[in-house]
Design a protein that fits this description.
The chain folds into two domains: 132 residues, NAD(P)-binding Rossmann-like Domain (Rossmann fold); 84 residues, 2-Layer Sandwich (Dihydrodipicolinate Reductase, domain 2). The protein is 38% helix and 22% strand. It contains eight helices and ten strands. The strands form two sheets. It has a six-stranded parallel β-sheet, with helices on both faces. It has a four-stranded mixed β-sheet with strand order 7-6-8-9, with helices on one face.
């Protein structure tokens, strides 16, 4: 399969490394356009947030599947409508770690289960490398969504940390911790390519735009079914 990888920063470069020689990268020096994207089976996007709108504008009317990994972008309604009209399928994720989706299911349980605790105090801490501009991280915001409640988020930027997310649930007599730590950006590259490959192999999924967790659950149910 041939992938067009738009954005060749740290995560995009990891995608290219795993994608194989038939794939190609695009960036501000090698600018993508509709004609250049024609030969590819799928487009994978990991651009900085400030470049996201221009890429979304380029791809919205393209009849080609897209895996979108850029975080911090506020989706305009007209872009989403154009994606729907184009008949393509987009998978949009704040974190393409497959393991993170197991964390998601745990957070769903914790979010409802804390109702029995006496005045629990929940907090989320996220740490990323100094080049990550959006605060809080898209994943931390997703954790709040998966918990089903607003939770105070502490953000820290230091060194080359790939990603740490930690939930603390405090009561008078105990503390519960849930922690996910990424060790290599290939984790996200691997998950994005997993989504791309399975999306191409399951053309009946879609069209339209979907969160990565929706597609993960679809594939998990399909794989788990006897």
């Amino acid at each position: 399969m041939k992938y067009a990888v738009i954005g060749t920063g740290k995560t995009g470069s990891a995608v290219l490394e795993l994608a194989g020689p038939e794939s190609a990268g695009f960036n501000s020096s090698k600018v993508p356009d509709r004609e250049k994207l024609v030969p590819f089976d799928c487009v994978v996007v990991f651009v900085p947030t400030d470049a996201a709108h221009g890429i979304a504008e380029l791809l919205a009317d393209l009849d080609k599947p897209v895996i979108w990994g850029t975080t911090g972008y506020k989706w305009p309604k007209d872009i989403l409508q154009r994606i729907d009209r184009a008949g393509s399928t987009w998978i949009i994720g704040s974190n393409f770690s497959l393991g993170m989706n197991l964390v998601r299911k745990t957070l769903n349980v914790l979010g409802s289960g804390t109702a029995v605790l006496q005045k629990p105090k929940l907090s989320i801490r996220e740490v990323h490398h100094v080049h990550k501009k959006d605060k809080p991280s898209g994943t931390a915001l997703s954790w709040c969504e998966w918990l089903g409640r607003d939770v105070q988020i502490e953000s820290e930027r230091k060194g080359d940390v790939k990603g740490i997310h930690e939930l603390a649930i405090n009561t008078n007599y105990e503390t519960i911790f849930l922690r996910h730590q990424s060790h290599d950006r290939k984790l996200f590259a691997e998950g994005a390519l997993w989504a791309a490959k399975n999306l191409l192999e399951n053309p009946n999924f879609g069209p339209g735009w979907f969160k990565f967790e929706t597609f993960f659950d679809y594939m998990n149910d399909k794989i788990s079914s006897p």
